[in-house]
Amino acid sequence: MTSKYEKTKGTQIGISNAPVTEDDFKAAGFPTAGVTFLEAECATKEISYTGGQKSDIDVTTLCSTEQEQTNGLAAPAEMSISRNWVGDEAAQLALQTAYENDELRALKVVFPSGNGFYVLVEVRQSSWSAATSQVVGATYSLRVKGKPKRIVASGS
């Protein structure tokens, strides 16, 4: 049996150049012509997504032989972006502006296969670090608003 995987080389990452409302993101035709994505992949080293953990609802009864739970509400999903710090890069400026002004931004992540996701996020934390014999790094912690929208490759 052959392993299945997707390489990361060629992954495209975009950050909306302006705020995006929850209503606009939820609209069937998202992204509309008014949404422009700034290229972010050439300074991004890693992007990660973690779905929100669901709370437990106790459904244990007197006839239960052990504790029983069912899923409750999910916490918001989280993302992080680790990048090279580039002071004049439009995508980084958009992330920093979103952090400073509590704006929602849309992210677009497209893997080499053409599959990917649109995600509406708010920037929760912005950090940078510098050390000897390295480049300046930046990390952004993001809270996902709502559910990501799948991007399906043409022909899939």
From TrEMBL:
InterPro entries: Phage_TTP_11. It comes from the Bacteria. Gene3D superfamilies: 4.10.410.40. Pfam families: Phage_TTP_11. This is Phage tail protein.
